[in-house]
Amino acid sequence: MISPSNVKFQPPIPNGLIVNEGLGAKYSFVKGKTYRFRFINFAALGSVMVHFDSHTMQVIMNDASYIQKKQAYQLRISSAQRYDVLISAIDRDSRNYPFLLSLDINRDWKNDPPAQLKWPYNVTGQLVMDPNGAYTQDVVEKWAPVEDSHFAPLDNAPAFEPVSRTIVLDFDFCRDVNNFPR
Question: Is 44 part of a structural domain of the chain?
Fold first, then answer.
């Protein structure tokens, strides 16, 4: 962002995804067990959309705070945001199930016309019940992630006490003495 060659102050746009520290995204999935997945978005300027084929996520943590369990079919994980979810393997499960992680580099994923939406960076992981079975892709026609403002703290405590003072921080870009953007 502040490199001398960036004379238009353009943010660095991500150009790929790293899942599980680059170790791949295949996880053993056994009937009768529940698995905890922790998602951490360490991107500076990109959200990640998450969807598990045929499975509902039970969201139990948001940004390291326990919340009242809430079902989600899709999540949007913003920069520096974290989620913990539970996925259960139930009796009907009998195949490998893909899950999709899509890097959101759209300026406004909700309001762009569908023809303008671009999702070039995707990773498909697998919940593996049969290592010799087929691996398929997860396709999401339309992203509609759960609204995280509807999550409630586990203890029902209010997020903030009454506010008595507002502090405003104003940031702006400028050029230094060498005319480099800062």
Answer: yes
Q: How far apart are alpha carbons 105 and 79 in whole angstroms?
A: 11
The answer to whether residue 51 is domain-embedded is yes
Provide the residue range defining the domain that includes 83. 22-144
Q: What is the pTM of this model?
A: 0.82
Predicted confidence (pLDDT) per residue in 131-161, tens digit: 999 999 998 888 899 999 899 999 988 877 7
The answer to the question of residue 70 being in a domain is yes
Tell me the C-alpha distance between 53 and 63, whole Å.
24
For residue 173, being part of any structural domain is answered with no
* CATH code, 124: 2.60.40.420
